[in-house]
Amino acid sequence: MNDKNVGVIGLGAMGLGIARSLLRAGFNVHACDVRASVTEQFAGEGGVACASPAALAAACDVIVTVVVNAEQTETVLFGEQGAVAALRPGSLVIGCATVAPAFAVDLGKRLEEKGLLYLDAPISGGAAKAASGEMTMMTSGPATSYAKAQPILDGMAGKVYRLGDVHGIGSKVKIINQLLAGVHIAASAEAMALGLREGVDAAALYEVITHSAGNSWMFENRVPHILNADYTPLSAVDIFVKDLGLVLDTARTSKFPLPLSATAHQMFMQASSAGFGREDDSAVIKIFPGITLPAGKNEA
Q1: Which CATH superfamily is domain 5-167 in?
Q2: Which spans in the chain are helix H?
Q3: FRET pair for 107, CA 20 to 30 Å: which of 70, 196, 250, 252?
Q4: Annotated catalytic, 172?
Q5: Strand 28-32 relative to strand 5-9, pairing
């Protein structure tokens, strides 16, 4: 057993899985979320519910921020009742949000000025791998951050890639992953839309593609949402509006062309503006005209 206190800020699909994995690894896991009901549920599983990031930080010298973006990271760290003001010198922040690399670099500097350590540590793998402690982490930061982080990383991830000793490299690799993820989801939606338009049975098309060379992890994972007409957001359309936007912003600074990323970004933008922004990212298929989407299976 490990009696070390660790804090998790953000109990969404990934954050709750991380918190549970750390709990199984023997840590005393303090957690907070804007939804008190989720925090209370986690407390019922053996965790410690905290009313704010500041309250959590007062009890822990390692905190893991599992929020959506840079704005939320800024709020939970530096906003009212933010964690940073309550952290003791030498404490570590492990940042898991997908953010612009420049933000990760700047955040590392700001935390260092306050006597704190930072590990740039975006995550991937989905809710199921987070829950089983098998997700992938793309990390970068100084050796002192890794030394303090190692037991926590071991408890929350299956693969931890050490990509460099400066902040921002982990975030660069993550947005490249998001480039591929977003393009693959958009391409999967386009392929299924063409199949529906041409009158191909959707379930049969899925079966064939997943056993053929055109398959991708995203096709295999997301198309069942379409077949089941279940657009409950595990990862929402608006996430890829944000993430592909970060991809394009990063490339724009060096005038690097990304034509497929730009097209996929426009598809997610179109879906969001049509009112599907908070639906599962597979709902990008709803932008295609003249098709009838599967109605799902009616359970008896």
Answers
A1: NAD(P)-binding Rossmann-like Domain (3.40.50.720)
A2: 13-24, 36-44, 53-59, 70-78, 101-113, 126-132, 143-156, 169-197, 202-209, 217-227, 237-253, 259-271
A3: 252
A4: no
A5: parallel
Sign of CA dihedral 287, 292, 297, 300: positive
Two tokens, residue 260: 């497929």
Mean pLDDT of the chain: 95
Q: Is the dihedral of CA 171, 172, 177, 178 positive or negative?
A: positive
Active-site choice (129, 174, 242, 286): 174
- Which residue in the block uniquely carries the two structure tokens 């394009």? 248
Architecture of domain 171-287: Orthogonal Bundle (1.10)
CB 188 within 8 A of CB 216: yes
202-209 helix and 217-227 helix, angle to the nearest 10 degrees: 160
C-beta separation of 1 from 26 below 8 A = yes
Per residue in 227-244, pLDDT tens?
A: 999 999 989 999 999 999
